[in-house]
Design a protein that fits this description.
Order of helices and strands: HEEEEEHH
Structural class: alpha+beta
Largest sheet: 5 strands, antiparallel
Helix content: 25-40%
Length: about 190
């Protein structure tokens, strides 16, 4: 009887804590998303979260697109993408494209890659050294691949699998977006 009472009190305490913190957690998640979108897209004055929509991938999954506009003019978009091909599984990224289909910026949202190796992807692919950087790459010229696979992007040293997965997430975002939208205006294709 006393064990049941203790469990009941603990359950009620957890429920109350969840109710009191749910709003703060939701606000924190919204701020994190807003900051990720802002960091990967050209300057905008709309609220991309309010205009977000889903697009289908060839694998039958869907990605979220956040269109960025300056006035009424399409400036680019942020696409929340992922790849399950990482060395340790899932890699989630927010990748931004400008109105000319170039990679504007990216932000790694989640990964479980090896510390000191695959975990370097946030910094590695933005450094303008040799063939490392994906920033400014024109995606109309072809999908991104590491040098070992016949591409022109240097993989992270000793983390080729993580590098392939990171580039796969960017390629998936671009392919899904351009198959669904006019990449120069952001308008949905009919």
């Amino acid at each position: 009887m006393s064990l049941t009472g203790i469990c009941l009190v603990a359950g009620l305490a957890l429920s109350a804590t969840n109710r009191f913190t749910a709003e703060a957690i939701a606000a924190s998640n919204a701020a994190t998303l807003r900051n990720a979108i802002k960091s990967v897209t050209p300057e905008f004055d709309n609220n991309p979260s309010d205009e977000r929509y889903l697009i289908a991938t060839p694998e039958g999954d869907s990605l979220t697109v956040y269109p960025a506009r300056k006035g009424e003019v399409y400036a680019g978009c942020a696409v929340e993408s992922r790849s399950k091909k990482g060395f340790s599984g899932l890699i989630r990224v927010m990748v931004g494209f400008d109105k000319d289909n170039k990679v504007f910026a990216y932000s790694v949202l989640e990964h479980s890659e090896t510390p000191g190796l695959g975990s370097k992807m946030q910094e590695w692919f933005s450094v303008a050294r040799n063939r490392q950087s994906v920033i400014g790459r024109d995606m109309k010229e072809g999908l991104l691949k590491v040098v070992k696979d016949g591409g022109d992007v240097d993989a992270i040293t000793a983390a080729t699998i993580s590098s392939r997965a990171f580039l796969d997430a960017i390629n998936t975002a671009f392919t899904a977006f351009t198959n669904t939208n006019d990449a120069s205006t952001g308008a949905t294709k009919q």
